[in-house]
């Protein structure tokens, strides 16, 4: 199974620090390079990480607050000067088309092809080898969380195919799709000549108050990346500003049966003592880490 590589290009919240840039999460797999949110200075983060932004295929915008999108104008200019020759697909909530149009106007005839696509709650983007789901969040402005999933894959077992004497024909495709076949008057069950390779799922939940869609987004995720802007001591502020606490992120991970939780969108108030939110979350869900800029995780 193809591995998914996650590179954290920015892990701070509204105010960046000397160690944390505004939000940007890059996910690479197959021939895809997908950026989730695009904080200010993102093109410099690409440079420091030693990654070419010219490989980008998609950008997923969670919402249009400044700390999540102000890197777009600079990124577009960098791509134009790098000879970017693909069509960059930018997905986001309601308003995305208008905002992309405004950025194009600001930059005056930016020389890259951009396709803006607006998504609603529980929309599905079906690609050949993977699926992206969008889910509405609660943040006082149109907001989305995303899951990216490579589905389970059925593989043929060559030795067993040979044992049954099956020819290299369309019947192998039937078996690989999980359908039983009849060959030379003998029934061959798909499960007797195939095995299933488990798929992989990443879920990304950024700025939002607690809501039921968060559990749908994170359900059975191999990795859940979630904001943890506040600790439980600031739960009233979290409620006021429509953000998650670290313990709420852990509750989502636990109830959704995610395998691992990575906390991000770290406030400057915890910059020098992230153990506060880490300990809080670990009381609820054990397999936790706190993202740092340029951390790389594979699944």
Could you please describe the fold and organization of this structure?
This protein is α/β, with parallel strands linked by helices and 299 residues long. It has 2 domains: 5-152 and 198-298, Metallo-beta-lactamase, Chain A (4-Layer Sandwich); 154-194, no CATH class. The protein has helices at 42-49, 66-69, 72-81, 96-107, 158-164, 170-176, 190-193, 212-218, 235-241, 246-255, 275-282; strands spanning 5-10, 24-29, 32-36, 58-60, 87-92, 113-118, 123-126, 131-136, 144-150, 153-156, 181-183, 186-188, 194-197, 200-205, 223-227, 261-264, 288-290, 296-298. The strands form 4 sheets. Strands 6-5-4-3-2-1-18 form a 7-stranded mixed β-sheet, covered by helices on one side. A 7-stranded mixed β-sheet has the order 7-8-9-14-15-16-17. Strands 10-13 form a two-stranded antiparallel sheet. Helix 11 (275-282) links the parallel strand 16 (261-264) and strand 17 (288-290). Helix 10 runs parallel beside helix 11. It is globular, with a radius of gyration of 22 Å.
Task: Give the secondary structure arrangement, pairings included.
Layout: E1 5-10, E2 24-29, E3 32-36, H1 42-49, E4 58-60, H2 66-69, H3 72-81, E5 87-92, H4 96-107, E6 113-118, E7 123-126, E8 131-136, E9 144-150, E10 153-156, H5 158-164, H6 170-176, E11 181-183, E12 186-188, H7 190-193, E13 194-197, E14 200-205, H8 212-218, E15 223-227, H9 235-241, H10 246-255, E16 261-264, H11 275-282, E17 288-290, E18 296-298
Parallel strand pairs: 3-4, 4-5, 5-6, 14-15, 15-16, 16-17
Antiparallel strand pairs: 1-2, 1-18, 2-3, 7-8, 8-9, 9-14, 10-13, 11-12
